[in-house]
Specification:
single chain; alpha+beta; seven-stranded mixed sheet; six-stranded antiparallel sheet
């Protein structure tokens, strides 16, 4: 990874381990060398519908005495253990806004929205708190993880699929984005992946997907833009891989 193009650097670098199981929503059991540790899982929902058994991962060491777990799982790989040059899938949704903000401030997303020096975080709009306001543009960031749109080998065992974008909070936020539109405003849904997803596709049909798709289509019709942003994660840091508009896919 070119250090000059990093959006975010890990210090110290991430270390590699093997997830042997997901104990609960908040805890992975990870082997580092010959020792098993209970490590923080930063995602409370499904991750690729994967059953975690011998799944490679990257971990950051916890900072501060208040943390109950010694490490946080930052990324997983769908490659078999022992594979060299693994492809990593970042799962720490808590850091995605930081990656996006740094990309905005660095001018890396200027064709999405310019004005990276006027970023306001966590802006209240209606009954929601949206992630950013840049000038007259409200931006909401989503990081779908219940489906990972990369090839998976036969060693990956999956559970039944769930909604890629959980309905309740998502519907409220995209509705507020749509409501923010005025004669001089823009509204953007930024769909971020911490891996190089070729193109975000609509998830399989579930009981909520019809409602979600209807609200998204209505918001697009009112002028909400949808952009896909792909970040690449390695043990040393995160960089912007590519980004492109996908509004037409949801019209």
């Amino acid at each position: 990874m070119d250090v000059e193009k990093q959006v975010y650097a890990f210090s110290p670098e991430l270390i590699e381990g093997i997830i042997v199981k997901r104990k609960n929503r908040f805890i992975f059991v990870v082997e580092i060398g010959d020792i098993a540790y209970e490590c923080h899982c930063p995602v409370t929902g499904s991750i690729g519908n994967i059953i975690f058994d011998a799944i490679p991962c990257l971990l950051s060491k916890s900072q501060g005495a208040a943390r109950k777990t010694p490490y946080t799982v930052e990324a997983i790989s769908l490659d078999p253990p022992g594979t060299e040059n693994k492809t990593w899938v970042g799962i720490n949704q808590n850091l995605v806004n930081r990656y996006a903000e740094n990309a905005f401030r660095g001018g890396m997303l200027a064709n999405v929205i310019d004005g990276g020096d006027t970023i306001l975080r966590e802006q209240v709009l209606g009954n929601s708190k949206l992630d950013f306001r840049i000038g007259g543009t409200y931006i909401e960031v989503k990081t779908p993880l219940s489906e990972i749109q990369l090839p998976a080998g036969p060693h990956i065992v999956k559970k039944k699929a769930a909604d890629a974008l959980g309905p309740n909070r998502f519907l409220r936020h995209i509705g507020e984005l749509s409501d923010s539109l005025g004669p001089h405003n823009k509204a953007i849904l930024l769909v971020c992946f911490i891996y190089d997803n070729p193109r975000f596709t609509r998830p399989a049909q579930t009981k909520n997907s019809g409602t979600v798709r209807g609200v998204v289509a209505a918001s697009v019709a009112r002028g909400v833009e949808i952009w896909q942003v792909n970040f690449e994660l390695t043990p040393s840091g995160v960089r912007l891989a590519r980004h492109f508009e996908i509004t037409a896919d949801f019209a």
